[in-house]
Amino acid sequence: MSYLDKNIRILSWARHKIHVAIAIAEALEYLHSRTPGVIHRDLKSNNILLTKHLEPKLTDFGVSRGVVESTMTSGVGTPYWTAPEVLEGERYTEKSDIYSFGVVLSELDTGRIPYFDAVMEDGSKARPFYILQKVMSAAIRPSFSRDCPPRIQRIGAACLSFDPRKRPTARELVLELLGKYSDVM
């Protein structure tokens, strides 16, 4: 998403970002609906390419797996985008991808990497290990800008729920982003 890094201020939720978010959610819905379902396991902004028309394409399926018990090991993915339960050693599920989507949604909103604004108790910039400890204890999650629409903040919060059972499915996410399922989150 380096295009977004350079142009985030000219992109709006109403005209651009919502379409990117919907298309990423639809890609997850497609993966998760296969038989067996496919879990990306490394969803992050660097694994999303944008066409010249700002259509996102998921890439880097090197660590993706079909949902088969023996392939759902922990320890794969990029830590800042990884769900807390996976950081704790639990197996990947579709809900792990949903958490990662919530992190990507934060990036899409702010144009910054997750936890860019995290600080330690003494006010210094937070170090990666500190951040991951806070993620695993539900004490921190990626932030959204003050200008982010409340509906997007609500969707992001649902995706970033510490309890995976409280995260939406990819289908619910698509419907909510389209504005057709507001009772879910």
Low-confidence stretches: 64-76
Task: Using the CA coordinates, give the radius of gyration.
Answer: 16 Å
- How much helical structure, as a percent, in the residues? 40-55%
The ordered string of helix (H) and strand (E) elements is: HHEEEEHHHHH
Broad CATH class: Mainly Alpha
Number of helices: 7
Give a short account of the largest sheet: 2 strands, antiparallel
Integer count of domains: 1
The third-level CATH topology is Transferase(Phosphotransferase), domain 1
Query: How does the overall form come out from the CA principal axes?
Result: globular
Beta-strand share of residues: 5-15%
Question: Helices and strands: which structural class?
Answer: mainly alpha
Instruction: Trace the largest sheet across and list its strands.
Output: 1-4
CATH homologous superfamily identity: Transferase(Phosphotransferase) domain 1
Task: Average the pLDDT over all residues and give the rounded result.
Answer: 87
